[in-house]
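Batch job 17 of 40 flagged for manual review because the log was empty.
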Amino acid sequence: MAKQKLLPGKYLAMLAAFIMAAMGASAWASEDWVTYRASDYGFSMLVPSGTEFVEREGPNGWAELYAEYDGVQLYGLTKRGEQATAAEIEAVGLKITGIPASKWTTINSGKNQNGWKWYETVEASQGDTLIVGDYGTGPSGSYLLLLRTTSSDYRAHKADYISWYNSIRLF
């Protein structure tokens, strides 16, 4: 997707999709954050204390860890043991969010950081829905971690969302 790369690798649905919905960072901003370690999925990240997770099957063989907290949805997808391409991960991100590729923008990317072999940090918006997160590959497989919120909440609490995606570690 050129400079407007979709979610890091089309498998955004892999492990990104985490705090999506309408909650926004406002509720997150007022909460105590804790490090959540998803050992079976091979990643950790900051989440509001008290967040409850549900495991479910994601698209195309991806495992999904899902949570909703005060209206924000989190999608954490992984395909363990497989180094998916960016295009493959992006396809999953498109499928789980329903937001077309033309609405995705890469805001950061890198290699060999925090367990990522490569990663992309992305934003996507459609209507009042905003998605932010990371996708890429790491030592244990492929990942897509996303939050869904509202555009207004994201703007009001952008620093909290940045803290969240910067906290993601792969192992």
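Reviewer: the log was empty due to a logging misconfiguration, but the result itself is present. Helices lie at 24-29, 86-97, 151-156, 158-167. Unflagging and moving on to job 18.
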